[in-house]
Amino acid sequence: MKNISFLWIVVLLIACEPDDVCSENTQTTSRLVIEFFDIGNLENTKTVGGLFAVAIDPQGNELAISGEIVSSRDKITLPLNGTENQSQFKLYNNYSVVNDVIQGNPDIITVAYSTTPVYVSRACGYKNVFNIQGFSIESDSDLWMINTEISVNEVTNENETHVKIYH
Length: 167
Description:
Layout: H1 2-15, E1 32-38, E2 41-45, E3 48-56, E4 62-63, E5 71-73, E6 75-78, E7 86-98, E8 101-121, E9 125-137, E10 147-150, E11 154-155, E12 163-166
Parallel strand pairs: 1-12
Antiparallel strand pairs: 1-2, 1-6, 3-4, 3-5, 3-7, 7-8, 8-9, 9-11, 10-12
């Protein structure tokens, strides 16, 4: 009985084609990469202390971003919504929670884009390629983000910076 089970597993593995399994190394829909720079010296990256992001859905509700944690860093990756033509995020500078009250300075960004589905493989299906058409910071009385620059319009991978934010 063990030999028959083993033989059955071997037959199934041999019958699989490379296109039947989506490898973890296969590039699927990429996230938007934002890098933060020093407004006083535009060539230098600048760490944002206590950076934290939440997504904002079309109804204005805040949504947690999978894997997002509070940390000081000069780069963040954000998932764009493939079913919409824009995504909004609230990015906090110096985020913390004290006595159940959120502390920090939030700025809201909006990314406008078009979406093109691209076939990857039978196992992986399609991925979305986003073409950034606009990037804005919502005005408030205490902006920590001063200026932005779209450096790469097409979001096809996470190895390059798509948007620069100066603060």
